[in-house]
User: Fold Cation diffusion facilitator family transporter from Runella rosea.
Amino acid sequence: MQVSQNSKFRWIIVSLSLSIILMAIKFTAYYLTRSNAILSDALESIINVIASSFAFYSIYLSSQPKDKDHPYGHGKIEYFSSGFEGALIIIAGVWIAIEAVQHLLHPQPIQHLDWGLWLILLTVLLNGVVGYYLQKVGKSTRSEALIADGKHLMTDSLSSVLILIGLGLLILTGLQWIDSAASLVLSLVIFYNGFMLIRGSAAALMDQTDPELMESIVNILKNHKRDYWIDVHNMRIQKYGSDLHIDCHLTLPYYWDLRQVHEAVHEFEEALEKDAGGYVEFFIHVDPCLPECCKYCRLADCPVRAKAFKRDIDWSIHNLSKNQKHFVEPD
Assistant:
């Protein structure tokens, strides 16, 4: 089942459109209030527009079919998009911190805070709702670009909440320096979230194991397990955007002919592809069973059984990833 690109395009267009609208709202709020904290939020919204534009391009490119230069497809561009977005966020955080320090040293009067607060509150609600749905759709379609953009919008929403708190304290106390202090705290939050996006992008580009994805694949195997799937080991999963590449070793009865082996491998692949969602490419290496495998083999009519069945091997993300057959320890 091919993951639909329509929902990915639809939501990234929503994100890009929202980023442009909110940027205009935030700069309007700054024009009315002359608040440094609001200016910091407005400047960060420029990053949102650039990041959403790049995410849109990455989703378009990841949807392109495989070619001779990219035999695994173009899906990994989404991880690069996530890292690029993180780098932009860090740049924005540094920029905002510099501005905050300058305004602490040279404070400026703030005005029309009532209008500014209402406009920023509107951006909090819009960013929060769209950011939530971007992450939800991103997880269902395995789109790192959508997930990263959703996290960015959620971070932006949190940043605006910090600004609202800072401006609220300013109204209550009349202390002008609170505005710049809120901006400085905001820069630290932005910097941290940018760093986490870059870290996640680097991990994905280096094919770091995704425990949640691995767990879901293992559960699919356990739910569809056949008696002649004697053992599975050395399982590895690579993500290429929405596509998956799965390779593993599958142990089958050593006396089977090539036709039986082919049908069993096809059934194994079909079970995974049906429930994994999206396009899945496989590389299955078949191992012949050994006498030691009899202790956990449930094949009832096996003509060459050397030992009695003792117990099942509990397949998990830990033992399926090991590059060795599983054995039942002697009593």
Observations:
- The chain has two domains: 6-205, 211-296.
- Residues 131 and 152 are 7 Å apart (CA to CA).
- Helices lie at 6-33, 36-62, 77-105, 113-141, 144-173, 177-205, 211-223, 258-276.
- The chain has a mean pLDDT of 82.
